[in-house]
Design brief:
alpha/beta, eight-stranded mixed β-sheet, 6 helices, about 25% helix
Length: about 210
């Protein structure tokens, strides 16, 4: 039975994109959704419809795939997206194509992506995809990355998070020319002040 009055929904866990799709059918006036997706769906998931009432999405995708991007395509009126994506890296060109084609009203984008087994060259190539005018001029969305022991953290600069920003890095890059690893550490300390915080700067980070 549909719930016509429900406008805000938070789900601790959802294990199938198809189930989330069905749930949105039963909440036709939903405005905001917060969900932790831990999906085992095959990558042939095809969304069944569009959900135009949803304007705010906060999502953690711990087993993402192309299904994550397919799901975003069903939400054409999103104004706000906050996404934590693990074990998948979406480069700046992919984000740009997807936003232009499917999310024309998007105003705020925060994301954190994390993946292992990444080397310095791959990290450099990835951050370069976020340096175009779509990111820095049109939307003023700036992105920084930390590479630490082949584990890469990529996130929008505004998304400070004490649990995911490493306190030191083998490589640090940012698309904001005024950003730096010391500034990142200062932001981290301002959120969480332990007795001892170590900020080791790689060569060239000053």
């Amino acid at each position: 039975m549909a719930s016509w009055s429900l406008q805000h929904l938070s789900l601790a866990y959802c294990f199938r994109w198809s189930v989330l799709d069905q749930l949105l059918h039963y909440t036709p006036n939903l405005r905001s959704l917060r969900v932790h997706m831990h999906s085992w769906d095959p990558e042939d998931y095809i969304p069944s419809s569009f959900f135009p009432t949803l304007i705010k999405l906060t999502i953690v995708a711990s087993r993402p795939s192309v299904n994550f991007l397919r799901f975003l395509q069903t939400l054409p009126n999103l104004r706000y997206v906050d996404a934590n994506v693990y074990n998948m890296l979406i480069d700046g060109h992919q984000w740009q194509r997807h936003i232009r084609a499917h999310l024309p009203y998007l105003q705020t984008l925060h994301f954190l992506m994390k993946s292992d087994s990444v080397d310095a060259d791959q990290a450099e190539q990835l951050i370069d995809t976020f340096r175009g005018p779509f990111w820095t001029k049109e939307h003023h969305w700036f992105v920084r990355c930390f590479l630490q022991h082949n584990s890469l953290h990529v996130r929008t600069v505004e998304k400070s998070d004490r649990f995911f920003d490493p306190p030191y890095a083998d490589l640090f890059r940012s698309t904001n020319p005024h950003d730096s690893l010391p500034k990142a550490c200062e932001q981290l300390i301002s959120i969480w002040r332990p007795q001892h915080t170590r900020c080791s700067l790689p060569a060239g980070a000053h």
